[in-house]
Design the sequence.
């Protein structure tokens, strides 16, 4: 049947439909006036029929927006003759089951036959009413169209109301889409936008699209009308602000917000409207990769704050507001999102340098659709350039460090302001940036010239990273996020950036928590970490090793007092360690002494050089003499012999063990029981001085992961180890994989996991007696 034909009709009374009711065409009504009461005296069918008013949101009921569903359909055409009145009476009325779909423009059946042979367009629906009968459990929605009425019968009142509100919403959003698609007067458009926002806020429907659909309509409107005045921009933003309180803006709207932040950063809209929107993004966004324009909008908002008179003070207050007044930030997503925004902004500063390196399309080119190779500009190579110095006297030789090296983009080879002399090699080859960094230590002063705007962006977001590092609760996660060094190589060659970042690394080095300062080391073997970058000779080092010494001190004070760490220092940083020790740095003196004590250095000449370095300072000489005394005592203990078995009384402490072992000869001690004592991981310092130890019982002690790591480095001959009821975890148990002599291991009632157990079995071939009861691996 054709729903779009026919004339206006009326209601019904008794067993027939009256044709005396006038259905006012809603095309002439205000959009917000569509929820009219209608004619309460209208009857339909033989029994008393009640036409319910529109259910407003104040009723408290909430419904999910329907997109499709099964329902009974009946179509009643307006009677024109006596025969048609009889055919449309209640007793001859026929109901058809249909699976209806609520599309964006019409009501469509999955089986287009019978009453629903053609779709019912929302524009043809003149009125929607709720119907119910007192003497019959029928729950219907009445849809009036020119020429008749469509009745939709649901199974219960809740489903009926759900269909009613869903149809009402679809009809209204369809009309708003048509009205705002062809704007004429912007004052009228603004009123319609406000009405659309009010409708979305008062709707009893609960669905993401209820707020997102109006935002998409408005974003499309703004995208197609880019010639609006700034005042119109602000009026529209203020109008849609209530919708943004609980919803992220769609991508096109983010682009519009970004433009406003760039063009009018001092507008009050930025503070009053954008602030809660950005706060919600930072608190609730889960992945900027899926919505990059949210990140770009957040970035532009922060830059707009930086343009205010107070500048970074405003940004600092904003960061503090995101953290909250307490010592613990209640929103776990704030820090990762802020770091993601900072990293993306820092990358954007060096975007042209990065693209000239790999000739990949820039973000700007991607946004402009220029992704094809033949559409792009010719590559702009990086050149190692050197400003021409004043002509020196003939007898004067200029060292390399007197000429600061600049890395620039050669945009126009014929331009006079880009012409530079070649480097000392005189070759025509184009060295890459990392090769430039490795020319000589003097090249560590390498600088990259950034445009003024990029320089401001870099300074702003580098300072935000510094602010984040000042919060104790954020520092562990921040250290973990920055551990892989997620910055472009060009940024690490930029002296200004590395100087700002040095503060963050210093904060990590000063933090006593292992989870923080352990992130100074590389994330995996073969890759440099912050420890390498800020060590003497590293790309980012701009001092005489003070930060390096601070990092070594904190790492040596934790569980990194191991042969592995000392071996790494001996292989890569022995020169800086000796230089700092020569200058009296106590941490470096201790490092050199440990290298001698643990036989890290095999070369005799290097050993003699280390000894000479230690003897050149008072602190070094004192510590070297103490080392010699310990070595003599150890040899004396081994010569004298002593007991082979020893059991400490219960409740003994670390101090008791140290006092006992220092009072006699225990060079031959093979079996030591510390079961049910109060010893901790600190006693490992004493245990590693027992070279003959083969059996160690730590049952029901507080010996933990740090002690296990130290034992695994020094007690290679240990065969039996009892860790029953100790607080050890996978982190410490994995270190036992280097103790190849272990044949008996008790991990009963520990935090051992199945994966770690399988790993230990694979790496300890002599392990035959294992107790893993009451663990996850049991």
Sequence:
């Amino acid at each position: 049947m054709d729903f779009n034909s026919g004339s206006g009709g009326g209601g019904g009374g008794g067993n027939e439909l009256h044709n005396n009711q006038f259905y006012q065409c809603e095309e002439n009504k205000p959009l917000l006036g569509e929820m009219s009461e209608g004619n309460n005296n209208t009857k339909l069918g033989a029994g008393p029929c009640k036409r319910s008013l529109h259910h407003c949101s104040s009723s408290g009921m909430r419904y999910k927006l329907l997109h499709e569903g099964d329902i009974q359909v009946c179509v009643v055409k307006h009677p024109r003759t006596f025969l048609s009145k009889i055919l449309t009476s209640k007793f001859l009325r026929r109901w058809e089951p249909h699976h209806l779909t609520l599309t964006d423009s019409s009501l469509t059946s999955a089986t287009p036959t019978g009453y629903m042979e053609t779709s019912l367009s929302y524009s043809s629906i003149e009125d929607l009413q709720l119907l119910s009968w007192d003497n019959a459990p029928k729950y219907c929605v009445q849809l009036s169209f020119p020429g008749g009425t469509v009745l939709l019968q649901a199974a219960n009142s809740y489903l009926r109301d759900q269909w009613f509100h869903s149809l009402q919403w679809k009809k209204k959003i369809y009309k708003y889409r048509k009205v705002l698609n062809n704007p004429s007067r912007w004052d009228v458009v603004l009123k319609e936008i406000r009405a659309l926002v009010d409708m979305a806020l008062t709707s009893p429907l609960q669905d993401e699209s209820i707020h997102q659909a109006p935002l998409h309509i408005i974003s499309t409107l703004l995208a197609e009308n880019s010639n609006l005045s700034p005042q119109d921009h602000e009026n529209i933003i203020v109008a849609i602000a209530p919708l943004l309180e609980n919803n992220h803006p769609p991508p096109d709207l983010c682009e519009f917000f970004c433009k406003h932040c760039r063009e009018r950063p001092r507008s009050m809209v930025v503070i009053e409207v954008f602030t809660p929107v950005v706060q919600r993004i930072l608190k609730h966004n889960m992945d900027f990769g899926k919505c990059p324009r949210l990140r770009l909008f957040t970035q532009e908002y922060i830059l707009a704050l930086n343009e205010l008179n107070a500048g970074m003070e405003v940004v600092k207050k904003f960061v503090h507001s995101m953290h909250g007044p307490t010592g613990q930030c209640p929103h776990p997503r704030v820090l990762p999102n802020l770091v993601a925004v900072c990293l993306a902004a820092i990358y954007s500063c060096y975007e042209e340098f990065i693209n000239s390196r790999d000739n990949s399309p820039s973000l700007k080119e991607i946004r402009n659709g220029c992704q094809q190779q033949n559409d792009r500009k010719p590559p702009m190579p990086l050149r190692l350039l050197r400003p021409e110095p004043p002509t020196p006297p003939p007898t004067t030789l200029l060292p390399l460090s007197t000429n600061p090296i600049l890395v620039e983009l050669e945009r126009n080879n014929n331009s006079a302001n880009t012409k530079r002399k070649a480097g000392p090699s005189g070759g025509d080859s184009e060295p890459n940036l990392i090769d430039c960094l490795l020319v000589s230590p003097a090249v560590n002063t390498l600088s990259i010239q950034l445009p003024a705007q990029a320089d401001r962006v870099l300074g702003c977001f580098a300072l935000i990273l510094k602010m984040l590092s000042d919060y104790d609760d954020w520092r562990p996660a921040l250290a973990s996020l920055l551990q892989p060094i997620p910055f472009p190589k060009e940024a690490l060659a930029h002296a200004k950036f590395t100087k700002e970042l040095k503060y963050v690394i210093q904060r990590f080095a000063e933090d006593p928590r292992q989870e923080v300062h352990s992130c100074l080391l590389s994330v995996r073997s073969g890759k440099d970490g912050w420890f390498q970058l800020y060590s003497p000779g590293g790309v980012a080092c701009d001092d005489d090793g003070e930060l390096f010494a601070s990092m070594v001190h904190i790492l040596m004070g934790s569980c990194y007092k191991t042969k592995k760490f000392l071996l790494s220092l001996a292989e890569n940083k022995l020169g800086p360690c000796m230089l700092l020790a020569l200058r009296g740095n106590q941490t470096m003196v201790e490092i050199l002494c440990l290298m001698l004590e643990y036989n890290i250095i095999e070369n005799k000449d290097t050993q003699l050089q280390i000894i000479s370095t230690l003897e050149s300072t008072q602190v070094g000489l004192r510590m070297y003499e103490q080392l010699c005394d310990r070595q003599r005592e150890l040899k004396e203990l081994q010569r004298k012999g002593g007991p082979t078995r020893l059991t400490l009384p219960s409740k003994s402490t670390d101090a008791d063990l140290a006092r006992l072992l220092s009072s006699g000869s225990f060079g031959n001690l093979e079996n030591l029981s510390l079961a049910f004592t109060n010893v901790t991981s600190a006693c490992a310092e004493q245990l590693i001085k027992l070279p003959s130890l083969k059996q160690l019982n730590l049952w029901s002690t507080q010996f933990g992961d740090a002690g296990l790591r130290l034992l695994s480095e020094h007690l290679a001959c240990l065969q039996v180890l009892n860790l029953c009821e100790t607080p050890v975890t996978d982190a410490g148990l994995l270190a036992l994989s280097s103790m190849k002599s272990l044949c008996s291991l008790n991990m009963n009632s520990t935090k051992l996991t199945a994966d770690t157990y399988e790993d230990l079995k694979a790496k300890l071939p002599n392990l035959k007696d294992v107790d893993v009861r009451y663990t996850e691996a049991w």
